[in-house]
Design a protein that fits this description.
The complex is a heterodimer of chains A (about 120) and B (about 110). Chain A is mainly β. Chain A has strands at about 5, 10-15, 20-25, 30-40, 45-50, 55-60, 65-75, 75-80, 90-95, 105, 110-115. Chain B has about 110 residues and is mainly beta. Classes of the chains: A mainly beta (about 120), B mainly beta (about 110).
Chain lengths: ~120, ~110
């Protein structure tokens, strides 16, 4: 399967600042990437679908102006949490899936803590 | 719309005993179904998947799952639990092709008693 990396693995930031999380597909050209968030001891919730070269598709209830997604190349998608607040603290996980691929391959996740 | 229900947020079994983790789904179209495992502070690892081929699917680490359309179930089993199986397990469904995100169940925490 595809190898997916995320950077950073952990980040602590102050309230009001912005944080960028990178998701890279290391051995697979991904036309589509997905961003999920996971609160402690809870399941993963799909936030948005990142499409290479076009605008991301956001799930209902996810603020697109707060969670900026850029998918400028077939191997990189970024999620920027703007004006972060403590309630944005979570585990953010990306995944890679092609149009013809049944499964998704997940990155190791990024732990965001907003103080 | 699609959804996944995992019965039992925690399941405890003895080492060497049968593992059974339950998953029921709802989907308006034939689904693709997945089981993932997550270890603490890590991403998800695919255990196995159902993609409309064989209804009994074998995965990694000795796990398998059976798709039962009449019961809308996709339960995960392993004949003999190992201590290393202790982790969080997620069942997920996708109702479309590769361009759709996954809908996850709430997860089941598997505890292995020595």
């Amino acid at each position: 399967g595809a190898v997916v990396s995320q950077h950073p693995s952990r980040v602590i930031c102050k309230s009001g600042t912005s944080v960028k999380i990178e998701c890279r597909s290391l051995d697979f050209q991904a036309t589509t990437m997905f961003w999920y968030r996971q609160f402690p001891k809870q399941s993963l919730m799909l936030m948005a679908t990142s499409n290479e070269g076009s605008k991301a598709t956001y799930e209902q209830g996810v603020e697109k102006d707060k969670f900026l997604i850029n998918h400028a190349s077939l191997t990189l998608s970024t999620l920027t949490v703007t004006s972060a607040h403590p309630e944005d603290s979570s585990f953010y996980i990306c995944s890679v899936g092609g149009v013809s691929s049944y499964e998704q391959y997940f990155g190791p996740g990024t732990r965001l803590t907003v103080t | 719309a699609q959804s996944v229900t995992q019965l039992g947020s925690h399941v405890s079994v003895s080492e060497g005993a049968l593992v059974l983790l339950r998953c029921n789904y709802s989907s308006s179209v034939p689904p693709y179904l997945f089981w993932y495992v997550q270890y603490p502070n890590q991403g998800l690892q695919l255990l196995l998947k159902y993609t409309s081929a064989a209804t009994l699917v074998k995965g990694i680490n000795g796990f398998e799952a059976e798709f039962k359309k009449s019961e809308t179930s996709f339960h995960l089993t392993k004949p003999s639990a190992h201590m290393s199986d202790a982790a969080e397990y997620f069942c997920a469904v996708r109702s479309g092709g590769g361009a759709d995100g996954l809908t996850f169940g709430k997860g089941t925490h598997l505890i292995i008693q020595p």
